[in-house]
Q: What sequence folds into this?
C-alpha cells in the first residue's frame, strides 16, 4: 500500500519556544532581576517589573511511559497553568504564578511519587545514557543503575545539604555519552575484543576500523582463508572504539566489562576553570539489577565530600584544596598504578613541584 | 489487553524504592501492548546475561538521511527467528526540542497520543544531545509517526556524521544571569543547518550548544564543537539594597570565606565605604553603612562565582555578548578535549549580530567539512593542524585570550617574525 504521493517532510527546524513559555516567563523574557530558593526544589524568580514566579522541580525516570507524562500534564494543568519545562538532567519544572499553589503542588507531586528537589546544593538526578533498553553497543543498563542509585540518594536530592551542587552521570561505555560530572560512573572494559572472524569481512569496512583504533593495535589479517582483522592484544587498551564500526569485534563481556568511577569533572567556569573528571576507582562488577557495589563507592565519596568540603567547594575545588593523597586516604579508595596517566599529554598530570601535604 | 508478561525477576527489583521506576512504566505499557511485553522480556534477558542485544541497520523517513535510530533484535532462536517477535524492531525517532525545553501540556499530550498509536508509548525527555527520544517503533510505523509529529511543527534531530540537535539553557526566559537571547541564537544557528542535520555528509558529528553565562548549564565547553557562552565586557552590576540584605542574612564570615576568598583572580576586596576606588573599571557596593565590596573589573574573569553567591546584589554588566569556543569533545579517539577560545567577545545585541553568529557557524562547519578526516571531530582536527592554521582558515585574527600561556618550547620555524610583529602592531593601532 504505497501512497500515490508520499508526504514530504516539512523541514521546519527547531520550533520557537515562545509559544510554549509559561505566561509569566513570556512576559518577563530577558528582564529578570534575581532569584532565591525558599526551600529545596523551589526557585523563586523576581523580574525587574516586580513580577514573581515560583518553579517547582521534581525528579522523573527520564524514559517515561505515556501514562506518566499524562499524569505530569494533569498536575501542570491543575497547578501550573498548563506549562512545564525540563532540565538537562530530566527533572521537570512547573512554573507557578501564585505562591499559594506551591505547597499543594509539592504535596501532589510527592503523593504521585515524584520527588521534589534537585535544586541548589543537592545531588540532582543522574544524567545518563540508554543502555540495554535501546543502545547497540551498551556495556550495561544506565537506567537501572541510576534508578538503584537515586533510590539511595533520594534524601540528598530532596535536601540541599551538600557543600555545593553535585552532578552525577552514568555511561554504558567509554564513549561516555553521560558526560563529565562531579562523579561519573562509566563502563571500563578490561579485555580486548573477541573477534568473530567469519563475519568481519562481510560486516565491517576494515580500513575504517583500523583507523578508529587510538593505539594502532588493529591490523588486517587472514583467518581460515577469509579476510578479517586481528588485534595486537598487548597494545590494546580495551576502549571499545572498534566495536561500533565492527560489531563482530565484541568488546562487551558479562564478566570483564567493569565499572570505573571518576570524580571532579566540572563544566562551570565558577571559581576554577572547567575540569575533566579523573579516575579514582575501577574493577567494580557490572552487577544488575541494582549494582550495589557502585552505589557503595559513590556514597562513600559523597559522604566524605559532604563532611569535609567547605561551603561552595565543588568536588574538584575540594580535592584541589586537600590534595589527591588525602582524597584517597579519606575515602579509603586504593590508589593504583593505573591511575598514573600515561596517555599523550599525561605528563601534565604529574606533580612537577615540591608541593606535598604532610 | 495484551498477552501475559514473561517472568522478570531481575527487573522487578527495580520497581521498589522511592525514585520513579521506568520498569513500572514499561509494565504499565505492557498491559495494553504485546510489543512492550516482548520489550520487557528482551530487557530481562539482557539483565540475566549482562549483554545488549540490539543491532543497527537502515531505517528512515522520506527525504531524510538521518534522525531515526534503527534497532533490530539479535536474540534469535536456532532457526534464526526472533525470540521476542513482537519486539523484533525497536527504532527511535530523535525529535528536536524547543530551546530551553519548554512545553505546554497540549503539546506533550499530543506526543503521547501519537506515540501510543504508532509506537511503544515510551518517550525519553530528553536524550543526552537534547532530543525528545520517541523510543520504540516498528519499521512500518516510523513514517506514520513521523508524519504526525512533523505536522505538529516539530522536526527531526541529527544522527551520524551530521550537525546534531542542540541545547540551550533556560536563559532569558527565567534567569537573571542570561547574557544573550539563547533561544534566538539556538534557533537561528541550528535552523541554518537543516540540510546538514537531515542529510549526514560531514566527516563526523558537529554539535552547537548555547549557555547564557559562565556557569555553562548546557555543559557546552566539554561537549560542543562550537560553544556559545554568555559574558559581558563592561563593569559588573550591583544592587545596594540586595547587597545589604545578603550581608544582614549571611554575615562577615561568609562574605570573606565564600565570596572574597573564592574569587579566582583576587578581583574583590573589602573596603571602608569611603575608600573605594573611583576608577572607571571599579564596581562597588555597600554591604552596610561603613563597608563596601570593591571589584576590579579589569581583573575579573566573569567566572560567575560571586554572582552565584550574591545573586541580584552582584550581576552581569550591560555590554553583553558571548565567548565562542571550539573543539570540545569526550574521549574517543585522542582523549578528552575542552573547547578553546576563538572569539573572546562576540557582540550579541541586535539582529545583525545574530546573523554574524550564524555566518561564523557556517564558516566553521564549512572548514570542518573540507578539512577534517573521516570520523575526526573539530577538536581533533585543530589538534592535528594547529590553532593558527584553523584561525587562518576561517579568517579570524589571533588574540592572547586564546592561550593559557605563550609557547613553552623553541621548536618552531619563525622566518616570518618581522611580518607578524608588523601585524600585531597593526592590530593594536586598529583596536
A:
Amino acid at each position: 500500500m504505497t501512497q500515490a504521493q508520499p508526504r514530504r517532510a516539512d523541514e521546519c527546524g527547531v520550533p520557537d519556544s515562545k509559544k510554549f513559555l509559561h505566561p509569566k516567563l513570556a512576559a518577563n523574557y530577558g528582564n529578570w532581576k534575581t532569584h532565591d530558593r525558599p526551600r529545596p526544589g523551589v526557585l523563586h524568580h523576581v523580574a525587574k517589573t516586580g513580577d514573581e514566579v515560583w518553579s517547582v522541580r521534581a525528579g522523573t525516570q527520564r524514559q517515561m511511559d505515556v501514562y506518566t507524562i499524562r499524569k505530569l500534564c494533569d498536575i501542570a494543568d491543575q497547578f501550573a497553568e498548563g506549562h512545564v519545562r525540563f532540565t538537562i538532567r530530566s527533572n521537570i519544572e512547573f512554573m507557578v504564578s501564585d505562591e499559594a499553589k506551591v505547597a499543594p503542588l509539592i504535596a501532589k507531586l510527592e503523593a504521585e511519587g515524584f520527588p521534589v528537589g534537585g535544586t541548589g546544593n543537592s545531588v540532582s538526578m543522574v544524567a545518563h545514557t540508554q543502555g540495554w533498553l535501546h543502545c547497540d553497543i551498551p556495556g550495561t543498563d544506565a537506567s537501572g543503575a541510576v534508578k538503584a542509585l537515586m533510590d539511595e540518594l533520594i534524601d540528598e536530592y530532596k535536601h540541599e545539604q551538600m557543600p555545593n551542587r553535585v552532578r552525577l552521570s552514568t555511561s554504558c561505555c567509554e564513549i561516555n555519552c553521560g558526560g563529565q560530572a562531579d562523579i561519573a560512573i562509566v563502563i571500563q572494559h578490561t579485555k580486548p575484543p573477541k573477534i568473530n572472524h567469519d563475519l568481519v569481512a562481510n560486516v565491517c569496512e576494515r580500513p575504517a576500523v583500523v583507523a578508529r583504533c587510538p593505539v594502532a593495535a588493529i591490523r588486517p589479517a587472514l583467518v581460515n582463508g577469509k579476510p578479517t582483522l586481528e588485534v595486537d592484544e598487548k597494545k590494546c587498551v580495551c576502549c571499545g572504539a572498534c566495536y561500533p564500526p565492527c560489531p563482530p569485534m565484541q568488546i562487551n563481556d558479562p564478566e570483564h566489562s567493569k565499572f570505573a568511577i571518576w570524580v571532579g569533572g566540572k563544566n562551570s567556569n565558577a571559581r576554577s576553570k572547567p575540569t575533566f573528571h579523573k579516575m579514582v576507582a575501577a574493577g567494580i562488577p557490572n552487577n544488575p539489577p541494582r549494582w550495589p557495589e557502585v552505589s557503595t563507592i559513590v556514597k562513600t565519596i559523597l559522604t566524605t565530600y559532604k563532611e569535609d568540603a567547605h561551603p561552595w567547594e565543588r568536588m574538584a575545588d575540594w580535592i584541589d584544596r586537600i590534595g589527591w593523597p588525602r582524597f584517597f586516604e579519606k575515602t579509603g579508595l586504593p590508589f593504583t598504578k593505573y591511575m598514573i596517566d600515561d596517555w599523550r599529554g599525561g605528563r601534565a598530570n604529574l606533580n612537577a613541584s615540591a608541593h606535598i601535604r604532610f | 489487553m495484551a498477552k501475559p508478561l514473561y517472568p522478570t525477576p531481575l527487573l522487578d527489583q527495580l520497581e521498589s524504592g522511592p525514585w520513579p521506576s521506568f520498569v513500572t512504566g514499561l509494565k504499565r505499557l505492557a498491559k495494553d501492548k504485546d510489543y512492550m511485553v516482548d520489550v520487557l522480556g528482551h530487557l530481562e534477558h539482557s539483565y540475566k546475561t549482562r549483554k545488549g542485544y540490539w543491532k543497527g541497520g537502515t531505517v528512515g523517513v522520506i527525504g531524510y538521511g538521518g534522525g531515526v535510530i534503527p534497532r533490530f533484535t539479535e536474540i534469535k532462536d536456532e532457526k534464526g527467528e526472533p525470540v521476542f517477535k513482537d519486539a523484533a524492531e525497536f527504532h527511535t525517532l530523535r525529535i528536536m526540542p524547543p530551546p530551553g525545553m519548554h512545553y505546554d501540556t497540549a503539546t506533550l499530550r499530543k506526543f503521547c497520543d501519537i506515540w501510543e498509536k504508532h509506537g511503544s508509548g515510551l518517550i525519553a525527555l530528553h536524550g543526552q544531545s537534547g532530543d525528545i527520544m520517541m523510543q520504540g517503533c516498528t519499521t512500518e510505523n516510523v513514517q506514520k509517526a513521523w508524519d504526525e509529529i512533523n505536522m505538529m511543527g516539530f522536526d527531526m534531530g541529527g544522527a551520524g556524521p551530521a550537525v546534531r540537535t542542540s541545547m540551550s539553557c533556560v536563559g532569558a526566559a527565567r534567569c537573571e544571569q542570561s547574557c544573550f537571547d539563547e533561544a534566538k541564537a539556538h534557533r537561528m544557528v541550528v535552523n541554518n543547518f537543516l540540510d546538514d542535520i537531515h542529510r549526514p555528509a560531514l566527516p563526523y558529528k558537529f554539535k552547537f550548544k548555547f549557555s547564557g553565562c559562565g556557569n555553562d548549564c548546557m555543559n557546552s565547553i566539554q561537549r560542543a564543537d562550537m560553544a556559545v557562552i554568555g559574558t559581558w565586557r563592561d563593569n559588573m552590576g550591583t544592587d545596594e539594597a540586595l547587597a545589604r540584605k545578603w550581608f544582614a542574612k549571611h554575615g562577615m564570615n561568609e562574605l570573606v570565606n565564600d565570596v572574597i576568598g573564592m574569587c579566582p583572580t583576587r578581583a574583590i576586596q573589602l573596603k571602608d565605604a569611603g575608600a573605594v576606588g573611583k576608577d572607571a573599571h571599579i564596581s562597588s557596593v555597600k554591604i552596610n553603612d561603613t563597608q563596601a565590596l570593591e571589584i576590579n573589573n579589569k581583573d575579573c574573569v566573569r567566572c560567575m562565582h560571586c554572582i552565584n553567591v550574591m545573586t541580584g546584589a552582584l550581576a552581569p554588566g550591560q555590554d553583553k555578548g558571548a565567548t565562542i569556543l571550539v573543539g570540545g569533545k569526550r574521549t574517543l579517539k585522542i582523549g578528552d578535549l575542552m573547547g578553546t577560545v576563538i572569539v573572546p567577545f562576540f557582540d550579541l545585541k541586535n539582529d545583525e549580530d545574530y546573523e554574524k553568529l550564524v555566518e561564523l557557524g557556517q564558516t566553521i562547519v564549512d572548514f570542518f567539512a573540507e578539512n577534517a578526516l573521516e570520523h575526526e571531530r573539530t577538536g581533533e582536527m585543530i589538534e592535528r593542524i594547529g590553532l593558527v592554521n584553523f584561525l587562518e582558515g576561517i579568517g579570524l585574527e589571533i588574540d592572547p585570550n586564546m592561550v593559557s600561556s605563550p609557547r613553552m618550547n623553541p621548536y618552531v620555524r619563525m622566518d616570518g617574525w618581522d611580518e607578524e610583529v608588523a601585524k600585531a602592531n597593526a592590530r593594536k593601532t586598529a583596536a
